[in-house]
Every structure is written in structure tokens, then in C-alpha cells.
Write a structure and sequence with these properties.
By secondary structure, the chain is α/β, with parallel strands linked by helices. It is built from 13 helices and 11 strands. α4 runs parallel beside α5, α6 crosses α13 and α8 packs across α13.
Length: about 325
């Protein structure tokens, strides 16, 4: 029986972790709401055990966690339903603890920090969210870390910045990758020249696998930084260099984002997070490297090339 379960496995980060587990020859459980989605993502891997769940049913949560030692939490919600994050964490924790799960790792975000007060940002940075989404993510983390402090479970958070890579369709750069394959116009959220960082998704899985094997990993938060400081403009230059089709770009600033948000719920919800584009927040992951050793990070040039190749392959009949 698998000892590791990925709750919310079908996303890009979940598939990166699954790939790393597969490369180690480990069986693992993937948990999601849709059997069809799980089958599409994992049917080809004999090491993956597929389990559907209903997070609103306690017995379903406990059944999905039965026999599991380590639960990796990647459960997502619609961008306009962030109030569900702490609710889902509370329900999942109760079911996991009832099922005897020993460890939980939450794949987190930078949202709970609010505006960066130091450069770069270490794990001891104050969590002072300046957005509703940040408050909901902080509440989610608080529930998990309180469960650890009370001895109910061992818990940790791995915090990631923005990410990109093959199959990632919610990146700031997704439109540019698509336009570089198909042509046309890429819609981008500006300003484009501010310092930023991105994690290449295939790099995440191996880090997670090393982290959960460390007894000292639990009881705190860790950072995984990108492959250095860059900017959207620099990555657009790489995308144009390696892409197969010329494309135009349309840059959307905060005022236009607010206007378009009157008609698009996703864009409307992006307005309050625009500060992460206009004000740099760069993570320091020296603590993580001190715990697990050097981390292999794909260069932006290579990551762009591989992402474009995957996008091109996806277009083939």
C-alpha cells in the first residue's frame, strides 16, 4: 500500500511530485474529485493508486487518507473562492488525523507575507497579508501549524513563488508560450520589467521528495526560490528567441485589469494581487539548501526551451 498521498494531484505541481516518486520506484496515491481527471493524468503509471474523494464528507476524507503516512496537500480552489482554503484544510486535517496520517506537507504561496519588508525574503519574514487571498492562505497555514504545535500531526509548509513549465496554464507567461507556438497576440500583466522569479515546475518534485524524508523538516516553513532573479521582459526575449512563431504582445496594467475584471471573474480577482508584479518579492531558500543540500534548478533558457517544446508537441495531431 502507498505511504504517500497527493491530495489535489492533477495540477502541474502534483504531477511533478508524482514523476519524482515514480523515478524512485515508489508507489503513491493520487487523490482528486474527478476520476476522469485522475485517469487522464495517471492512468499510464502503474505505481499510482487513484482515489476519488469528496472533501465535504468526513468519511470520504478518512477513506482517501487510510493507510497513508505522509500527505502532500495541493488542493486548489477557484481563484474567486479563496474563502474555501481554510475550510478545506480544516476538514482534511480532521479526516487525516482520524485516519492515522503522521505527516502533512502543504505546498504554499507567498501570499501570506504581504508586501516584502526585506530583500530577499527569508522564512522569518512577518506574515502580514495585505489581501483577502493572503489572509485565507495564512488561515490555512495557521490551522496546519497549530495542529503540529498541539502534537496532533507533524506539519510543514513549502512556499513557492510563481511557476512555469510544461502543462502549466496559469502562469503569467502562459499566453506568451501559446502565442510563440500558434502566433497571434499574448496578453500579459505589467509592468514587465520589475524583478521577479519563477520556479520551473519539474524542479519541484525532487525537492519535495527529499524534504519529506528529513525528520527536521516538520514544524516550520521552507522556501524554494526560482533559478535567480529575472523579469517578464527577459523571459519574453527568451520565448521569442526559442519560439517558432512571431507574436505581438498586449500589456495589461492595473487600471485596465480592474476594468476588464467587470466582465471576467479571474481578472477581477487578480487586481488585489497586482502588487506581486509591481513590487518585487524574492525568496531566499538558503535554509532549505542547508537542510537537504544543493538544489538543481533548471536555467530560464532551458526551462523556456522545454516549455515551448511541450506546447508545440501538444499542438500535434
Amino acid at each position: 500500500m502507498p505511504q504517500i498521498a497527493l491530495f489535489g494531484a492533477v495540477g502541474a505541481i502534483g504531477q511533478s511530485i508524482a514523476s519524482a516518486l515514480h523515478s524512485q520506484g515508489q508507489t503513491y496515491r493520487v487523490v482528486g474529485r474527478s476520476e476522469a481527471g485522475l485517469a487522464q493524468a495517471f492512468d499510464a503509471d502503474p505505481l499510482a493508486e487513484r482515489v476519488t474523494w469528496d472533501p465535504d464528507v468526513p468519511a470520504s476524507i478518512a477513506a482517501a487518507a487510510a493507510g497513508i503516512d505522509t500527505l502532500i496537500y495541493l488542493v486548489g480552489v477557484d481563484y474567486w473562492q479563496f474563502e474555501l482554503h481554510p475550510q478545506l484544510m480544516r476538514k482534511t486535517l480532521e479526516g487525516a488525523i482520524a485516519a492515522g496520517v503522521r505527516k502533512v506537507l502543504l505546498i504554499g504561496t507567498v501570499y501570506p507575507y504581504g508586501m516584502a519588508q526585506t530583500h530577499p525574503v527569508r522564512e522569518d519574514h512577518p506574515r502580514q497579508p495585505n489581501s483577502f487571498k493572503g489572509r485565507m492562505r495564512k488561515a490555512q497555514e495557521d490551522l496546519l501549524l497549530q495542529a503540529h504545535a498541539s502534537g496532533r500531526i507533524q506539519a510543514a509548509v513549502l512556499r513557492l513563488p510563481d511557476f512555469y513549465g510544461p502543462g502549466v496554464d496559469k502562469s503569467l507567461l502562459h499566453g506568451a508560450f501559446q502565442a510563440a507556438v500558434k502566433g497571434g497576440t499574448a496578453n500579459l500583466v505589467g509592468p514587465l520589467d520589475r524583478p521577479h522569479e519563477f520556479v520551473f515546475v519539474p524542479d519541484v518534485g525532487p525537492v519535495v521528495c527529499r524534504l519529506i524524508d528529513q525528520p527536521d523538516a516538520f514544524g516550520r516553513t521552507w522556501h524554494l526560490a526560482g533559478a535567480g532573479v529575472t523579469s517578464q521582459r527577459d523571459l519574453l526575449a527568451l520565448i521569442r528567441q526559442h519560439g517558432g512563431a512571431p507574436f505581438k504582445q498586449r500589456v495589461i496594467g492595473k487600471p485596465l485589469l480592474r476594468l476588464l475584471g467587470l466582465f471576467d471573474p479571474l481578472l477581477r480577482e487578480m487586481v488585489e494581487m497586482h502588487y506581486l508584479i509591481s513590487s518585487p518579492l524574492i525568496l531566499d531558500d538558503s535554509a532549505l539548501q542547508g537542510l537537504i543540500g544543493p538544489i538543481a534548478k533548471t536555467s530560464y533558457a532551458e526551462g523556456v526551451r522545454r516549455t515551448l517544446q511541450a506546447a508545440h508537441n501538444a499542438q500535434q495531431p
